[in-house]
């Protein structure tokens, strides 16, 4: 499928899949969305502890990049597992402007290091941050009671409805530890009901710019 780099509402870039008219991040602001959904309503529930985190859809690497820097501020030791079936190219990585927008210390070097890290291996990117990228379908995840937090950042149900079903969310539920948290930008009633059907307690939260609501689910 044809992909192209576009600029979103907050000045940060993302990738658009033209055939689907779908974007890797919100067209209203890639960085704003990542912070609101995954950091403010996910990562910041944890502080001064060890976090095992699963990202569904590594994509551009934006969520992992921001998590690395925010985890330092939160005193977190982070084990970050990212699943992605179709990694982006180096040309696309080089065209993204996240570090220019974020202005984090040594951001460009870390962003490249993250993308060049070997797949199917746990790579120590700093004293308190490991990254394991896995190239596979989300339905192939087999871990049980492993993670504290899931960033569920798959493409939307409009274009990939099979990624928003009870089948998928049952896998997510099994992979979380007790009281584990799943956060997603999605807010459709069908998604909420699918999460509840497999045992999650689900709450609606205010969404990022351009979106009225998002969901957070907790494994009881």
Question: What brief labels describe this structure?
Answer:
220 residues; 3-stranded antiparallel beta sheet; 8-stranded mixed beta sheet; alpha/beta; Rossmann fold; 30% strand; globular
What does this structure look like?
This protein is of the alpha/beta class. It has one domain (29-219): 3-Layer(aba) Sandwich (Rossmann fold), CATH 3.40.50.150. It is 29% helix and 30% strand. It contains 7 helices and 11 strands. The protein has helices at 30-40, 62-74, 90-95, 98-102, 107-116, 166-175, 189-197; strands at residues 3-7, 13-17, 22-23, 50-56, 77-83, 122-126, 129-134, 147-152, 176-184, 200-206, 213-219. A hairpin with a 2-residue loop joins strand 6 and strand 7 (129-134). Helix 1 crosses helix 2. The chain is globular and about 40 Å long.
Q: What's the short version?
A:
The chain has 220 residues and is of the alpha/beta class. It has an 8-stranded mixed sheet, sandwiched between helices.
Spell out the blueprint of helices and strands:
Elements: E1 3-7, E2 13-17, E3 22-23, H1 30-40, E4 50-56, H2 62-74, E5 77-83, H3 90-95, H4 98-102, H5 107-116, E6 122-126, E7 129-134, E8 147-152, H6 166-175, E9 176-184, H7 189-197, E10 200-206, E11 213-219
Parallel strand pairs: 4-5, 4-8, 5-7, 8-9
Antiparallel strand pairs: 1-2, 2-3, 6-7, 9-11, 10-11
